[in-house]
Amino acid sequence: MDSHKASVLFQDANVFDVDPQSGFMPPEEPLSRLPDAWEPWEAILDAAITAKLQLGDKPRITETEKSSSESWRARVRELPVLSTSALDSPILLRRAHLVLAYIMHFYIQSLPPHAPVLIPRPISLPILRASTRLDMPPLLTYADTVLYNWTYKRPSETKVPAIDNVRTRTMFSNLIDEEEFYLCSARIELRGVEALEVMRATMDEIFIGDQTAVRRISGYLQTMAAVINELKVLLMDVRRECRPDPYYNEVRPWFRGEDSDLEHRKWVFEGLDEDPSLVAPTELSGPSAGQSSMVHVLDVFLGVDHQSTSPGKRSFMSRMQSYMPRNHRLFLDHLSSNPRPLRAFVMASGDSALLDAYNLAVVALKEFRDSHMIIATLYILGPARRAAKLVKVDSSKGEPVKGTGGTDLVKFLKDTRNRTTETIIP
């Protein structure tokens, strides 16, 4: 890979869908509605939001609420099985995936807690087919909730989204807590664009490799540390308008994937055996910040190793890449294949100023993960304990609290933080 290719890696949006101004977020407002041929999907999603459907395992759910949910689910089962073959662009397919995924999660999570999860053909077949073409799992992902789920807060002179001028388009609860949860990630994606530019410039200098390049890279890494520190501030800012208990009890349960189901129910996709081109999905974890390409690219660039230590078993971070848009995965693969990685260059340079600047950036990433642990404690572990006390369950026993990606949350966060700390060069 030469210097020109290093630059192209970060700037050719046609290849990787990574925009110089908006990063992994699309540079223009995502499609707001599918064409008329797929209006039944849009209309049934609108109906779920308008009806304010409730979670099936909501404490003290009323008979009226149960009846409303079942009435809506009956309408879903009566939908026609619409073809996806005419969804002939990534933009249309992404919108279809988002709409179908929200419908599917509304359907599953509004079911009574002990009812089997049978996803009806009008939803299961289209989402399986659209997901196959997108090479993504057939359920809600981070891309659906954050990357392709925004509109402008006010008219914009430029098409590129600004950090203070985006709002969320589609939500389960329409609570400010849900919107702020999504927007927290969106702001991190947009602020992280400068980090992508720093990476591009750094890679160009690595291929020059002289003392002037070393000096410039030191400056770039100091900038990188400052950007990551700003990402940490944005992460902590979620506390301003997203309240822990409403988020945990009224928002987060809608995200649950199969591996986070409290009753360990298997998701059955009706009609799967009718189409030989379809295969049973194996990845059914809900949307997670671990699916953010921005977080992964920081790890890859700085040389944080999240590979599994168990032979033949993929690490959580590796699994989460399969939930990303395909071109973003290709971007990460391309970056990972760089024959002159930054960490090795720093170690070989013998330059103390470069070493200090590199460690400064890694420490900033470690502190970002410290903040993630604080947020997880505030928004998940604390509310989980309070909820357990309300139903008189001993939260110190039984299964560990799971993240939306289906992992043991505390173990995962500690592991990723430890892997980051281990990247610091003595």
From TrEMBL:
InterPro entries registered for this protein in UniProt: Indolamine_dOase, Trp/Indoleamine_2_3_dOase-like
GO CC terms, sorted: cytoplasm
Domain of life: Eukaryota
Gene3D superfamilies, per the entry: 1.20.58.480
Annotated heme b binding sites: 372
Signal peptide span: none
Keywords associated with the record: Heme, Iron, Metal-binding
An example molecular function term from Gene Ontology annotations: heme binding
Record flagged with keyword Iron: yes
GO biological process, one term: 'de novo' NAD+ biosynthetic process from L-tryptophan
PANTHER family: INDOLEAMINE 2,3-DIOXYGENASE (PTHR28657:SF5)
The family this protein is said to belong to: Belongs to the indoleamine 2,3-dioxygenase family.
Stated name of the protein: Indoleamine 2,3-dioxygenase
Protein species of origin: Asterophora parasitica
Organism phylogeny: Eukaryota, Fungi, Dikarya, Basidiomycota, Agaricomycotina
